[in-house]
Specification:
PilX N-terminal; 29% strand; 46% helix; 138 residues; 2 helices
């Protein structure tokens, strides 16, 4: 009788240990996936921010014509013109980028340029970052 109780106790403790181990493995696998997704998101977001800095530099230096040839046609309305970024920005990149000039609004002391930047991960196409921003030039 004692051997039977001892066997049941050992089997019960083994079952609890297996369940605990399975839960620990599951948690470690899912947290790795989440942290990897967060890392890719932050990387794509930084990429979009870099493109926004590039665009603002081009506006300030007066080179907006080279990026958006027909930008003068979209003052005070939604123009949705595609922005042509230099190929050097995309060399060895894991991202596909679509940049759009949404509009230019003339105000009494300058202009406001509105852009939309969409960055997609080439390896995981369902992951993307969209950044829209306005930039006022005096």
């Amino acid at each position: 009788m004692r051997k039977g109780i001892a066997l049941l106790t050992v089997l019960f403790l083994t079952l609890i240990a297996l369940i605990f181990s399975a839960v620990a493995i599951y948690i470690s696998i899912t947290s790795t996936t989440i942290s990897g997704g967060e890392k890719r998101y932050k990387s794509a977001l930084e990429y979009a921010k870099g493109i926004s800095y590039y665009l603002t530099d081009e506006i300030l230096s007066g080179n907006i014509n080279s990026l958006v040839p027909n930008y003068t046609n979209c003052i005070n309305n939604q123009c949705n013109l595609s922005v042509s970024l230099p190929k050097t920005i995309f060399s060895n990149s894991n991202y596909e980028v679509n940049t759009t000039l949404l509009g230019i609004a003339e105000i009494e002391d300058g202009e406001i340029y509105t852009f939309r930047i969409e960055v997609k991960n080439r390896k995981v196409p369902s992951e993307r970052v969209i950044v829209e921003f306005g930039y006022k030039v005096y």
